[in-house]
């Protein structure tokens, strides 16, 4: 992959992280439960951290990383993504968030797959792993609140 294309992808990824942080910030105001607000605040902070890490990467700051195995409940893979609306249900917000995390994980895993440099590959595997953790947090919340409610 040429450098121009790679930096386009990096800028796209940074923008997606900023959008994700803003999405989680918005969800905090819509949440009825303190635990949900807390989770969305944590996710917002983590997404801002990813945006900053990507910016640092662009400046040449790369750390070595070995990705852990993250459990996947596979809930989001079987759900249809609803539209974002001002009056969406909490269940819909969780589904949208899970789908976004899954998409980000796939993006970073694809970049890692295309990377020839080990440090670059590891950096994007780290981001993919962190997105997988976020998805697990959301799937666990969905499982506990939505599945157990029915």
Return the CATH topology.
Ferritin
Unreliable stretches (pLDDT < 50, length at least 5) are none
Q: Largest sheet, if any?
A: none
Question: If you compute it from the alpha carbons, what radius of gyration comes out, rounded to the nearest whole angstrom?
Answer: 16 Å
**CATH architecture descriptor:** Up-down Bundle
Structure class: mainly alpha
Structure description:
By secondary structure, the chain is mainly alpha-helical. It has one domain: Ferritin, core subunit, four-helix bundle (Ferritin), CATH 1.20.1260.10. The chain has helices at 3-30, 34-58, 90-114, 118-147. α1 packs antiparallel against α2 and α1 (3-30) packs antiparallel against α3 (90-114). The radius of gyration is 16 Å and the shape is elongated. The model has no long low-confidence stretch (mean pLDDT 88).
């Amino acid at each position: 992959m040429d450098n121009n294309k790679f930096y386009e992808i990096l800028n796209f990824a940074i923008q997606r992280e900023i959008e994700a942080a803003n999405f989680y910030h918005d969800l905090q105001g819509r949440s009825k439960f303190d635990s949900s607000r807390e989770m969305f605040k944590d996710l917002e902070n983590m997404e801002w951290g990813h945006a900053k890490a990507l910016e640092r990467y662009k400046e040449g700051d790369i750390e070595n990383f070995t990705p852990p195995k993250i459990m996947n409940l596979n809930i989001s893979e079987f759900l249809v993504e609803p539209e974002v609306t001002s009056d969406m249900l909490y269940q819909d917000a969780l589904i949208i968030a899970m789908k976004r995390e899954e998409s980000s994980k796939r993006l970073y895993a694809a970049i890692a797959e295309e990377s020839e440099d080990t440090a670059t590959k590891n950096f994007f595997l780290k981001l993919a792993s962190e997105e997988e953790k976020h998805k697990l947090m959301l799937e666990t919340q969905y499982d506990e609140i939505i599945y157990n409610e029915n």
